[in-house]
Write a structure and sequence with these properties.
It contains 5 helices and 6 strands. By secondary structure, the chain is of the alpha+beta class. Strands 2-5-4-3-1-6 form a 6-stranded mixed β-sheet. The chain binds a DNA duplex (12 and 12 nucleotides) through loops.
Length: 136
DNA sequence: GCCAACGTTGGC
DNA sequence: GCCAACGTTGGC
């Protein structure tokens, strides 16, 4: 089991919308590094859901339900996965708070701000759940 | 709304 | 294959 973090602008597709929809296809990624991560995702992997721009916080947990397939929004070689909501964070963990958390010092998302899909270690994942006052 | 950081593109 | 120019992202 691996852990990941995806970013979404809440103006475009907030976590609440994922909860309403029950499942969505995570497509439109056009970044090679992010594509590598998308293709490494396995069904059942847990995904932290981060709101960029507005909010700037981890707001919930999702799960991979379909592994990488051809992105339906393009004929070019890009991948999409499907995810479903697991549960929202009781307390969203803001970017500012994350930067102060020692267990997250090496977190990829904090080091590479523009990467829309990034790996998370179990230690980082657990630390974020605790900070979010959330248990699975 | 601005700007820094980063990835991509294209000319050489 | 290098690097300057450009476009995009995302924090502030």
């Amino acid at each position: 089991m691996s852990y990941w973090l995806v970013k979404s602008e809440p103006d475009v597709y907030p976590f609440e919308q994922l909860q309403k929809d029950g499942r969505t296809n995570w497509d439109g990624v056009r970044n090679y590094q992010a594509r590598i991560h998308l293709r490494a995702m396995k069904a059942g992997d847990l995904v932290l859901y981060y709101h960029s721009n507005e909010g700037k916080a981890v707001v919930g947990i999702a799960r991979v339900v379909r592994e990488a397939y051809q992105d339906p929004t393009t004929d070019e070689d890009w991948s999409a996965v499907d995810i479903e909501p697991v549960k929202p964070f009781v307390a969203p963990v803001t970017l500012a708070a994350m930067r102060k958390m020692r267990p997250l010092a090496k977190m990829v998302m904090l080091k590479s701000g523009r990467l829309s899909v990034s790996p998370v270690t179990k230690g980082q994942f657990d630390a974020l759940l605790a900070a979010g006052k959330t248990t699975l």
